[in-house]
Amino acid sequence: MEVLLLLASPLAGAVLLGLYGSRRWAPELNAFFSFTTFAAACALTARVIASGPVLVAREQLFIDPFNVFLVALTALIGLTTALFSRPYMRVEAEHGRLGHGRLRLYHSMYQLFTATMLLALTTNNLGLLWVAMEAATLSTVLLVTLYRTPASLEAGWKYFILCGVGIAQALFGTILLYFAAERVLGAEGVTALLWTHLNVVKAQLEPTVLSLAFVFLLVGYGTKVGLAPLHNWLPDAHAEGPTPISAVLSGLLLNVAIYAIVRCKVLVEGSLRSTLPSQMLMGFGLLSVILAAFFLWRQRDIKRLFAYSSIEHMGIITFAFGMGGAVANFAALLHMTVHSLTKSAIFFAVGHAAQKSGSQLIENIRGLITVSPTIGWGLMLGTLAILGLPPFGVFASEFLILTTAMKQQPWATPLLLLALGVAFAAIFGKVQPMVFGETNVRRLPHAPALLPVFLHLAIVLMLGVFIPPYLAGWYRDAARLIGGP
Amino acid sequence: MTSLGAATQLLEMICAAIAAPAFLGWVNQCRAWLQNRSAPSLLQPYYGLSKLFRKDAVLAESASPLFRVAPYVVFGAMVVAAAIIPSMGTGLPLSMAADGIALVGLLATARVFLSLAAMDVGTAFGTLGARREMMVGFLAEPALLMVLFVAAMISKTTSLPLIAEGLATRSIGLYPSLAFTAVAFLLVLLAENARIPVDNPATHLELTMIHEAMLLEYSARHLALMEWGSALKLLNYACIGFALFVPWGTSTEAAGPAGLLLAVPLLVLKLGFAGVGLALIETLSAKLRVFRAPEFLATAFLLAVLGLLVHLLLGT
Amino acid sequence: MTALSIDLQLLNACATLLLLLSFAMLAQRRIVSLVNLLALQGALLLAATLLLAWRTGEVHLYLSALLTLALKVVGLPWLLHRLIRRLNVYWDAEPAINPSATMLLGLLIVVFSFGLAQPISALASTATRSTLGIAIAVILLAFLTMITRRKAMSQVVAFLSMENGLFFGAMSATYGMPMVVELGVALDVLVAVLVLGVFFFQIREQFDSLDLHHLESLREGD
Question: Is C30 helix (H, G, I), strand (E, B) or coil?
Fold first, then answer.
């Protein structure tokens, strides 16, 4: 029941906002639908806590400890981003950057995007997972090009083509998986793509086919995660779209793509009984971390800077899932959570800062602390959090990942440390003058509402100091579920 | 058995040599009809050859012995090739010694001598023709080999008579690989025999000619042998095509002399249709620029290799 | 030589024609002809699906044939033709970039995909298992087409051709995916083309052309 409400609420929102998305009260309506979605997610979470995994709609939907916290996280960030986009979009509309049609498009697609992500997270059918991922791409393509500037069109085109090609590989991987499953589960084709069924028989699946399938799936969904060298679309799409979209792309869509990879990895590992999937994940992850860290130096656009930081963190998460085992999986899940919260908070702050200064270039944004202390502090704290400074949650997860790496993959530790160091220097060096630098811009008359920023940072801070027992319980269950070599 | 085989082989050789100019004449006749011209006689090529044989040969001062030997080598190669192609019967005793690959080798020998002779005198046109001929050859030859390989893989032998027999007795069905190679072979045939769209046998237009440019320095009996050789080459290619793609009606060893008697009129019938088809293609297509010829042949090669791959994949 | 039944032979013929069409698309420069080739590819896919449905008697294959007819033979080509007319790019053609090399690369791709399909085909129990290699080749050739093109429209046609290849692959390996997935995929493809239609107009409004070299200003470090 909660699950259906969870999916129906954003869908209804998409339809309604498609009709009325340009009215004065549309942003509030948008936030309302995000709120009902969040409420449904909370109810669902409560139910999963109380009675364990849920399987509904003829086994097509499935919620277990692994995806329930992602559902909750997605709904939460969906809500806070809707709250953030309320004043943000008003300002854009007042500046005349967006007309009625585009506001309708924006609000409708925002809800549709949420719906597709929630469907991808909750579906038990690996085919539907693919469909939902593709739909998520399609619903965001027109959002990236919302401003219709040449750069945004280019970003949108790149996003569409790269992700389209990538996701086509994932479809082929899915076909191969279905092919292997059909031989075990029978040709009716009703159950052969359902993850719960596959998970039971994973040891009997044909290893050659599955290893090939995993290569295609990893490349396909990896493109969406933004793993190097398939990351090209990510910085452009983040930089050129409206800021709320950058926040949800970075905070949520990448998580969903990683979720898809991990679900597939569980099956493949069960069949192969070898470390091939782990090694591939670690390789791609490490490459992304290192490449992103060095690309950070060359960025002049603040949103691109944080987009590369997202690639870096996705690399860390992928690497951790690659190492596998209870601790690394736990750390990866925790890192997914805190990264989403922190990164979306940063994008909120950056969005306001860029809106105030009318530019996204780092050199044009200076002295935020004098212009608007809340934005300045929000950006500074968010940056410190994402760079892994204690006591924020990112520190805890990165610390866990590093210590596990030292134990299990000692060769990778210096590389990870080096990349983290480079990233730290690059981001801190660029953000510091933005916040504290000299400026002659007058102080803003009013402080923007930055409740979402500080809410997210507070949660991240809390997760760094104390993880609530039920959350830790989920993480542990999920980590056990994901397993590893 | 051997005597019949030897007779078949001898008959093929002689018939081919005698009939080649007539086939060329037939193609020219069809072409003329299709183009609304009054056609030359079927025997016109024979008149041309006999005229050339009666004339005195003139050689360039700088011509080496190679220049004089080349026409005989070219003609000889073509006659031998005619002997090993199973055009009438498949019980050929020489087929043990010369399979499909040897056939391609024979054709290559003729090409090499023709080109060397063309460059021998050192005129600009000869060299130009020779270079263009090599350009065509380096793509057409692998394509032809690929075509033969596909047929060889289907019948699991490279011996041409066995291939023809195997293909003639196989179960009726769709063979995508053979369809691909048939088209490829047709393209190779057009290019190798200097037909439109690669070359125009009817003109001496210096900017586009390939084959004619190589023969400019020849006269009298040498020229006659060269032209006879090229007529034979066309016939040979047609017969290779029959052996691979329409192998029905060729006499087998078991059929005896009666089979051979039936095979000859059938061959004439096939040649008749082939001539009409060739004339039709030449009338309907336009001459390509010389520099587009590699693309044309690359298509042939592509199709032949695709045929091979498809055969490997599907087993048909 | 074992004789295959006639429907299987026809299926194989369809498969090889699909492969040939992929090469034709790789070589074709005119955008309108490219769209027509795509429609032809859809028609071949339809024929193959119908043959397979008739052979296996599976109802869902008839349904997916219907889907193919509606979407790939009629719907998408019609949409693309409309777009071409509306965008006035009827006479647009691509400049040729070393066609022979592209073709040879295509051949290598075919060899690679046949090799890739070998272990999978060996395990398959479907009658059409041998065509899986062709399906992979169609996918990868479409990918190659995409890489060698500079016009937005041709890239999209290549993208759709890739989807056709995936569909054919699913058919050869497993007689198609479950219906719910197939419907979802079809919906996604349709929406993708609609979104792209909107996108084309945006690109043209901005650049007065659909040439993608306008879209090369975003570089690392800018």
Answer: strand
